[in-house]
């Protein structure tokens, strides 16, 4: 029973909002946002409390629930992203005049789906979790249903997402056909040697997860959806979904070591394509939000580089350095990207027009706090030293160097070169944001922004502190630059 | 013949291929949506075949979950199609041009 306390926090908060909404009628009520934020924050705290016990994995609910450190870490990140989103949403929705309580209900249930997806080693459980989060997110993207862009984003996300689900189901069917079970430990025991049926299934699963993680060439929906969806929801999608999809994919790849050798090159080339296309397209954008969408595709590419190293590392029971690198990257990326989208959401105008680089002009004097937050987040995304993003990318770099030196052939050197070149390209467009804020004059006339609440400001400042602390800070309570390494290692162990 | 799992698998692969082709080729939103459902059900059929083959109940349970999921997806998807129709009075994928760059 104590295994599902975080789920209970989320579901109870969602139910409270639903019941209260029945009493207040179709108009939203102001408490929905705070209730959702508290519910998600509570779930985050309960996940943290599970961390100690999760060192020895426990199963429950007839093998559907598995509490281990990997799942607890990913769940905690999803809850954190959800809590920040619930803080940002009221400001965004009220500005559009559409503060709907059901948005928060959906958000909380999506987080529960995310946790269900990562806290299981049963493919049926993972799939149900994935669909719970996907169906909720389709509706959340279209939450501002009076806006064409929002509805279009929702529909595009829905069509590609459902297509990906169809591919995933067929992949699951083929893996099931080869192994005779949906349970990952059983699959690992049964699939000791490669077979065509299982390989086809795993490739289909890879394509399905590629859609969810917006890997090139399965990324075409991502820029449109990220641009059209309400900005806080975009921040949530680009962080939490990547965290849980990457974690679930790692679990699948971990359970099929017999196929690692056959798919490592495919994953590697997918990674090279994803970082390159993501970063090059980001260079050419005028809208800041769309630029961040392509940047998040690029970051998915860095994750896939670590996946390739993971697949090439011989299967040793226990600790895996590439897995730790992926988790470290996910933590840093989640905090950083949430901060960037928090600022974007605070700066947008009521008409829902996307921010351009020119709109950021003179931000340093208009709103020093927001400008500084965005500055730190851009530096972290560009992985400049002293930020969390730097250590995370350094970690990916280190595992790739390790692989390149111990494997024959130039394959991992190619991946390494892709990583370095793309980091340089990334610097170019992240610095463009900074130069717009600090060196350009304010646009004439000034965009009509609405005042930002103190809570949003506080969240921005907290995220800045987190990014710097996790990048260069001393160890306090087991967290800090060093502490993050040990947490990622513990999750991978 | 009636118990030959291969025949059912061939049907499911065909269904999957038809669904995928429909998704990629057709322009009407409703038909695209229908094609996706076809793909989902092709997977579900394959799972049922394997579940019969192994005598495993997990597959049967999963089949029902997929059915429920398909229904949930239709509900959300169709409501978005209606929202789009209210704004545009057209249901063609070529009209989804608000977002590009």
The whole-angstrom Rg of chain B is 17 Å
Number of strands of chain A: 2
Counting copies of identical and different chains, the oligomeric state is heterodimer
Radius of gyration of chain A from the CA trace?
21 Å
Q: Mean pLDDT score of chain A, rounded?
A: 91
Helix content of chain A: over 70%
Widest β-sheet, arrangement of strands of chain A: 1-2
Helix and strand element order of chain B: HHH
Q: Most extensive chain contact?
A: A-B, 44 and 45 residues
Low-confidence stretches of chain A: none
Strand residue percentage of chain B: under 5%
Uncertain stretches of chain B: none
Number of helices of chain A: 19
Task: Write down the overall mean pLDDT of chain B.
Answer: 89
What is the strand and helix layout of this fold?
The complex is a heterodimer of chains A (493) and B (101).
Chain A: H1 5-24, H2 32-53, E1 58-60, E2 65-67, H3 69-95, H4 101-118, H5 123-141, H6 148-179, H7 184-190, H8 196-212, H9 221-228, H10 231-254, H11 260-283, H12 288-312, H13 321-347, H14 363-366, H15 368-381, H16 388-406, H17 411-439, H18 454-472, H19 481-492
Antiparallel strand pairs in A: 1-2
Chain B: H1 5-25, H2 29-54, H3 57-88
Helix pairs in contact in B: 1-2, 2-3
């Amino acid at each position: 029973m104590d295994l599902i306390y975080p789920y209970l926090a989320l579901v109870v908060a969602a139910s409270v909002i639903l019941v209260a909404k029945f009493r207040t009628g179709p108009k939203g009520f102001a408490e929905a946002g705070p209730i959702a934020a508290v519910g998600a924050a509570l779930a985050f705290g309960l996940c943290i409390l599970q961390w100690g016990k999760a060192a020895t994995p426990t199963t429950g609910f007839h093998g559907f629930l598995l509490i281990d450190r990997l799942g607890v870490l990913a769940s905690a990140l999803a809850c954190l992203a959800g809590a920040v989103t619930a803080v940002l949403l009221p400001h965004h929705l009220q500005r559009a005049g559409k503060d709907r309580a059901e948005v928060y209900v959906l958000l909380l249930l999506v987080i529960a789906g995310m946790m269900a997806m990562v806290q299981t080693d049963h493919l049926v459980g993972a799939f149900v979790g994935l669909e719970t989060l996907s169906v909720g997110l389709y509706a959340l993207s279209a939450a501002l249903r009076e806006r064409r862009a929002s509805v279009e984003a929702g529909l595009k996300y829905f069509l590609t997402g459902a297509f990906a689900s169809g591919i995933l189901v067929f992949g699951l069917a083929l893996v099931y056909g080869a192994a005779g079970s949906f349970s990952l430990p059983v699959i690992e025991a049964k699939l000791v040697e490669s077979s065509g049926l299982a390989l086809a299934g795993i490739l289909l699963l890879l394509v399905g997860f590629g859609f969810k993680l917006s890997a090139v060439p399965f990324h075409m929906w991502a820029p449109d959806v990220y641009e059209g969806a309400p900005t806080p929801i975009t921040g949530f999608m680009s962080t939490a979904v990547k965290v849980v999809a990457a974690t679930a994919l790692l679990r699948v790849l971990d359970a099929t070591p017999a196929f690692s050798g056959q798919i490592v090159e495919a994953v590697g080339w997918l990674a090279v394509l994803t970082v390159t296309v993501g970063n090059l397209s980001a260079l050419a954008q005028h809208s800041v939000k769309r630029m961040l969408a392509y940047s998040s595709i690029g970051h998915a590419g860095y994750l896939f580089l670590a996946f390739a190293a993971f697949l090439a590392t011989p299967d040793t029971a226990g600790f895996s350095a590439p897995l730790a690198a992926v988790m470290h990257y996910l933590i840093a990326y989640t905090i950083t990207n949430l901060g960037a989208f928090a600022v974007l959401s605070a700066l947008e105008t009521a008409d829902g027009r996307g921010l351009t680089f020119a709109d950021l002009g003179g931000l340093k004097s208009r709103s020093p706090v927001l400008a500084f937050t965005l500055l730190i987040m851009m530096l972290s995304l560009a992985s400049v030293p002293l930020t969390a993003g730097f250590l995370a990318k350094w970690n990916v770099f280190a595992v790739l160097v390790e692989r390149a030196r111990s494997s024959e052939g130039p394959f991992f050197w190619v991946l390494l070169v892709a990583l370095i070149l793309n980091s340089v390209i990334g610097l170019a467009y992240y610095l463009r944001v900074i130069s717009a804020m600090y060196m350009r004059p304010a646009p004439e006339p000034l965009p009509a922004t609405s005042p930002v609440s103190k809570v949003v400001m506080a969240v921005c400042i907290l995220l800045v502190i987190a990014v710097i602390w996790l990048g260069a800070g001393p160890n306090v309570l087991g967290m800090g630059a060093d502490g993050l390494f040990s947490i990622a290692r513990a999750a991978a162990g | 013949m009636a118990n030959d799992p291969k025949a059912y698998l061939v049907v499911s692969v065909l269904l999957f291929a038809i669904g995928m082709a429909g998704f990629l080729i057709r322009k009407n939103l409703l038909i695209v949506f229908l094609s996706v459902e076809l793909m989902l059900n092709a997977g579900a059929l394959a799972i049922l075949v394997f579940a019969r083959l192994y005598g495993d109940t997990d597959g049967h349970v999963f089949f029902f979950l997929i059915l429920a999921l398909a229904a949930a997806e239709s509900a959300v998807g169709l409501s978005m199609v209606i929202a789009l129709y209210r704004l545009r009075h057209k249901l063609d994928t070529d009209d989804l041009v608000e977002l590009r760059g």
